[in-house]
Amino acid sequence: MLPPFEIHQPATAAEAVALRAQFGEAGALYAGGSELLLAMKEGLGGFEHLIDVKTIAGLADLALAPDGRAVTIGAAVTHRTLERSALIRQRLPLLAEMARQVANARVRAVGTLGGNLCFAEPHSDPPTALLVHGARVVLAGAAGARRLPLADFLVGPYESALGPDEILTHVDVPLPPPCAAGAYVKFGMHERPTVGVAVLLVPDERRAAVAEARVAVGCVGPVAARLPALESALAGARLGDLEAGWPQAARAGEALDAVSDLHGSADYKRAMAGVFVGRALALAARRALELT
Amino acid sequence: MSARRIALDTTVNGRALSLSVEPEALLLDVLRERLGLTGSKRSCDVQVCGACTVLLDGLPVSACSVLAYEARGRRVLTIEGLASDERLHPVQEAFLATAGFQCGFCTPGMIMAVKALLDDSPSATPEEVREHLRGNICRCTGYASILAAVAVAQRALADGAAG
Amino acid sequence: MIELRRVIDVAAQPEVVWRRLWDVPALARCIPGCEGVETVEAERRYRATIRDRVGPFRIAIPLDVRVESTPPARLSLTAAGRDSALGSPVTVTLAVSLTPGAGGGTRLTLAGQGDVGGKLAALGQGVIDRKTREILDRFAGNLAGLFADGPDAAAV
Questions:
Q1: Which fold has domain A6-52?
Q2: Is C124 an interface residue toward A (CB < 8 Å)?
Q3: What is the pLDDT of residue B143?
Q4: Whose CB among A65, A158, A180, B108 lies 3.0–4.6 Å from B79's, allowing a Cys bridge?
Q5: Using an 8 Å Cβ cutoff, are B53 and B113 in contact?
Q6: In this complex, do A261 and C86 lie within 8 Å of one another by their Cβ atoms?
Q7: CATH number for region C2-148
């Protein structure tokens, strides 16, 4: 089973920060435990002190930001909550679509968004969907709070920019333009996804072509990433063409920094990325047209 | 109480309990070893197979990968808690009616997953049922009889069977 | 399995380079994360531990290192061990050949291979491959630095 540890219950982010500083590498932040406990069972990381972030007031809050232009998601919000939340379904439907597909119902019941981002598992769904919204993470540390674009927070596989005495308190997700339509699709035959693609399309005024496209691919490389060249190439594309299947999508994977692993070779993953970018574009385009 | 133990006040299958457990104790071990509730199984040990599915405040969780600590002040429901003295739960009856099991190893977890689903979405479509049960693996049946059991259970519950 | 092929040209003469290669502590300092080098049998067998981290997880790999040499131009080593957390097998082989280079200097040709198996590889093959390549690359760079400033220079 698990090696012995103590569990600490900070009531505030400041207390958690102090505990992190106190325990250093012997301490681990603990939310849903869906990655941490598995790693500890494998024998990786004998952390003697678990700092339970679920006891921190407000860390599971989910609300529209005061300026009404973003949604603030507390670090301890579970995937299931994101999946079910009326606010997320209405204002950030791509996130709800992603959250619905995370792992399985049991993992969604306990796994948290903050835990997922801090563990930075490459084969995971949330970062991909968050990247196309330009999400930012908010970190609390002894020196105060700092805000970081998610792309800068995800440093590498299993490596986030979270400092040794910081905790992630929440994620700010800017709302997309009201006319935008998106899709999150994933593919895999293992417990974790092999490819994840998030697409957000902002149509032009006549809703016939793309004014702005945002595309992110996850699980293929060491971190999820946007595809800026593809996004530029999509400007002006007709939604009907995307819905029918956009030939250039097949080459989307060429720009990706793919890693060969048990999910497949780098070539295979690049090829699959192309396939699923095409499908995500088609789905998003169809939804954009249906909104007319 | 030794310094390395924590107090755990919880409710399991309707019974209020006060236990003293190690912080690192997993819920599955407390259920099986301390409480003798061996219906929930340890199989993959990594939250993939669902054989250890129990309900925590109505939500399905992997008891193999949840600390007993998380059950404090909450309600745990295991397969042993479904039937009353007089009758099986409609989901259990449905699994019997369709023979939704062979070796039975995945069955407690499968039934708990179905109960959680139907409590939450009694009118789940076949597609939604499939999606929800993706996390429960069966090596014997090929799933057809399991999905048939869910449909039977839905009809029974809709007809007023106590669930 | 990660392969390393590197050619390093240094100004020092081959005999000087050969002697420097046998300065085991200096060589060990070229390997990122290498600690606690012990001589079991001079010029034949050594022990060392490689320490590194992947995200929040620390890895320690005690290695048994066997060396064969054909003075003054060639040495090869095989380092084998298991990571202390998971018991996964790790093997590194390295062959170093010295040939006379331009202007009285030396050309070092490195041919190496790093192999990680077991659970460590299964859990993070992509990450491990990257790490192995990084370690081998930095080693080659450090080795070049060892000879770049002359025989008395400390390792980078």
A1: 3.30.43
A2: yes
A3: 97
A4: B108
A5: yes
A6: no
A7: 3.30.530.20
